[in-house]
Write a structure and sequence with these properties.
The structure is a homodimer. By secondary structure, chain A is mainly α. Chain A has three domains: 1-31; 33-98, Arc Repressor Mutant, subunit A, CATH 1.10.10.10; 100-143, no CATH class. Chain A has helices spanning 5-29, 34-48, 55-62, 66-78, 100-121, 126-145; strands spanning 82-86, 94-98. The first copy, chain A, has a two-stranded antiparallel sheet with strand order 1-2. In chain A, strand 1 and strand 2 form a beta hairpin. In chain A, helix 2 crosses helix 3 (55-62) and helix 3 crosses helix 4. The longest helix of chain A is centred in the N-terminal third of the chain and has 25 residues, at 5-29. At the A-B interface, helix 1, helix 5 and helix 6 of A face helix 1, helix 5 and helix 6 of B. The structure holds a DNA duplex. Chains A, B: Residues 5-141 form the HTH marR-type domain. Chains A, B: InterPro entries: HTH_MarR-typ (IPR000835), MarR/SlyA-like (IPR039422), WH-like_DNA-bd_sf (IPR036388), WH_DNA-bd_sf (IPR036390). Chains A, B: Pfam families: MarR_2.
Chain lengths: 148, 148
DNA sequence: CCTATTATCTCGTTGAGCGAGATACACGCT
DNA sequence: AGCGTGTATCTCGCTCAACGAGATAATAGG
């Protein structure tokens, strides 16, 4: 018989799959591709962290080469989700800024899921929250470290 | 200031991203595409559950149409990861069976991460495990339900 | 300034996945 | 048995995301 911990491992995998499908639904409903959604999420993360995002850094974050990055930003710009802004200091750079409406669109779609997650977490005490937190940190670090 | 629960929400998202990247690394190291890896995982899940997997069901599970499914199975078969077996009862069906070596390959790659996760979980008591389990179930169900 | 380096874009190509339709088998129905 | 309807897979032609190679433009160092 398998270790009882395996149930949680499979649950975690199922969550990852569901979250992926959730993004994919958002993508296809808005005429976008999974990569475009990942790009918008990356851009919003950077914005929340108060960092500027250049075309190159965006492409690197998504594992695209320069040609693919240009095509991606073209696509997002054509759809009105981002703007290209030439770098102030270094005029070779192209800063990619998310449009407010894209942010609102994302919040409208992902908001309910986030709210529900927060609501679930409010049902736990400090020790239980610490367990969830440290398990997720552990898996994230293990997945990030394995194979470089 | 943001709710403290948001840290865990972002952690969960980070885990999903890392697991995705982990699969992607496995894919590119073995000359495969993300879809091929998802297909193999689906096939192994079915095998563990003792179910037969037809070409059609596999394609449906991955959201591919019939043409894409044929191409996918062609690709996997050419690489020696699966075999096509004509259905016994219904000769229109094509059962897709994973090759033992593909199973071994997957276990060699994902095994350490799974082992590490189980090891992490062994550090918690029953109440903490229950918290992790119910949180993951809750998020999985919420992500699955949102937008159909 | 002249050269090396860095950031982005252009061009031509590959290949995953799609839509439409062909093919092959299964299961009634009479 | 013979025929039509439904179902499973495959073939063909196409689109478009992403790649490799190389062009273009701006910065940084000697």
């Amino acid at each position: 018989m398998p270790a009882p911990e395996m149930e949680i491992v499979h649950l975690l995998r199922a969550v990852a799959v569901e979250l992926g499908l959730h993004s994919a639904r958002f993508a296809s409903r808005n005429g976008m591709h999974p990569t475009d959604v990942r790009a918008l999420i990356t851009l919003m993360d950077a914005r929340r962290a108060g960092e500027e995002m250049t075309a190159g850094r965006l492409g690197a974050a998504l594992g695209l080469n320069s040609a693919g990055t240009t095509a991606l930003v073209d696509r997002l710009e054509r759809a009105g989700h981002v703007r290209r802004v030439r770098g102030e200091g270094d005029r070779r750079k192209v800063l990619v800024e998310v449009d407010e409406r894209a942010v609102a669109l994302g919040q409208a779609y992902f908001g309910p899921l986030i709210d529900r997650s927060v609501e679930l977490l409010r049902g736990y005490d400090e020790r239980e929250l610490a367990a969830v937190r440290s398990f997720l940190r552990g898996v994230r670090d293990a997945a990030g470290r394995e194979g470089e």
